[in-house]
Please model this.
Amino acid sequence: MSNVLSIAREESRLWLRSRLALFALLIFAVLLAAVSIATSLRMSEEHRERSEQQALAEETFLSQPDRHPHRMVHYGHYVFRTPPPLAMIDPGVDSVTGQSIFLEGHRQNTAMFADARAGADLGGFEGLTAALVYQLFVPLLLIAIGHGVFIREREENTLAPLLAQGVTGNELYAGKWIALAGVTLALLLPLAIVSAAAVVRGETLLASFGVIGLYALYLFVWCGLILLVSAMVRSRALSLGILALFWLASALIVPRMAVESAVSAMPAPGKIETDLRMQAELREVGDGHNAGAPQFMQLRANLLVQYDVERVEDLPVNFRGVVSEVAEADVTEVMNRFAEERMEFEVRQARFAESFGWLSPVVAVSAGSRALSGTDLATHHRFLREAEDVRFDFVQGLNRVHAEQLAYNDDINRSLNEEANRRTRMSAENWNVLDEFSFQPAAADERLARAGTPLGMLSAWLLLLTAGGVGAARRMQP
Amino acid sequence: MSELLRAKDLTKAFRSNTALNGLNLSVNEKEIVCLLGANGAGKTTTINLFLGFLEPTSGAAIVDGTEVTADLKRARSKLGYVPEQVSLYPTLTGLENLDYFVKLGGGHRDESHLRGLLDQVGLDQGAADQKVGAYSKGMRQKIGLAIALAKGARALLLDEPLSGLDPSAANEFCRLLRQLADNGAAVLMATHDLFRARELADRIGIMKSGTLVEVLSPESLDQAALEQIYLNHMHDDETVEEA
Model:
């Protein structure tokens, strides 16, 4: 063990004395710190802004004057997806999926106000996040520092004296591994600081440690690859070439291939075609605006029988309100079915793309990072479902007010005169049917479970590369 | 006198080329054996087989009773090695290099002891604290010898350690080797330098195409006779490239 530590210490000393390595380390440290701080500030500003917007939207809804309840159904309400604390590291799909939804009766609107549009004038630089720097650029630094760890010993003929001193190939491998891992851990310091800041803002320790652990595992995969290549080839140029090629494939080609393959293996049904299909079903169900529509004849007959009356005017409930309530439930069932189909399809596509993590550690780490940070597709889907629950609850709450508190006769005669119209205005106290909405990240253990497959992929990469490296080091001769 | 290095029918073939063919040789304590021969005669291959850098095709390399392939670590722990070019870490000082290699070899690392070793091999204290990037070849060879000394190696393997040294440095180096041998070390040195071999060695082995063709006692030969014997053997030598 003492030999291993001596080799590690000596390797680190050589790097520290090499101005190039030190300079590169400093540049990356500054880049990491700058990007981490910038992303942290941006996401905490986003969090503050969206929380304020959420509160303002709720206040605006609740402060509406007395109105006809169905007007409130269409007045609508906004919900905002506040970014989780770990979005400071990895904003994930936040910038491309939209962060707020306008909720109203009979419709499921798509999320809007994506960062990608808002930040278009920044030339894409706002997209440089700590996650991206760790996923793409830190491996480059490790390659620059470590591609020659074994080759240097060969080229400078120090391998023979080392082995002659009784150092084994495995000790040499372990020493170099520890040295490179030491650099990796030092580079993880900014991530640890941002993770600690996330804990201060309410993130769990488990999730924060999970993110640090994931990136450590990912960068150790690169250490394993760098050591394997350096142990196997005999020239620095070749080692650098192989590693640069792997980086290019892993960071740029395979992720692109993953997306393209997912799209071509599982082509998404056209939006227009899907919308038309859904609209046709919605038309059959009816949105409840026309209580006399044929879809509601059976409902009318059932109510008359239930309350043993001859005319809807004699019902103890407002037939139009009941129609709205029933129609909203039916419409929602159709919309939810289409939404679930779409989300299930998106999940299948995403899983297919993520399976390319077996080919590229970058694909694996980005999937794991989004899952642990609470900024993945599953989180966005949960936001859509929770937003839909809010929409359905407040719309049905208003429909119940419509059915139970507004007389049918007043309702159908509201256009006769101002007085008739006034009688259909329900008290603003009824707008309290709106629940407060505060989007929270999933529990840490749930996120950890979602990151299980990427963690497994990275562990497999590490095991495979370490086994290869140990094998190559054992056979190493001057 | 105990036998510290022994080659027993030691053979190494690289595909169709036999670099070393059934070598039988032993080096006892307090003895210096020099191997002479043209490039590719099998000298470096012999040393690499003792160091375990190469696996023998057949036969055995034995260090102080330990067969190298059976227990490489134990065999290496008894060996000191000085190559033709002692390669050190250029950003470290001579003392730091010595300290590092001694640490890996499990030797005594007290600074005054290490400085004493450097003094013993003739490296002055000022040079010990300089980075070895600025060292001459002779200074590097001295560090190499100091590493072997610090390890307390019982057997020394030297692969053309004198090449490129100026006469004064070569004399100094040979004096140190003699001193080590007198203190009990077994020294096996590959060299092209007939003069130094005759001055230094207790026995001289002449190698040709992977075979030990003659073992001479320098005491019985003058320089001219040694040269003649050597040239006679080299005359029709077919060199075999060593790996």
Remarks:
- Chain B touches chain A through 29 residues (CB under 8 Å).
- Confidence is low (pLDDT under 50) at residues 238-243 of chain B.
- The two ends of chain B are 34 Å apart (CA to CA).
- Strands of chain B lie at 3-14, 17-28, 32-36, 58-63, 66-67, 79-82, 155-159, 186-191, 203-208, 211-216.
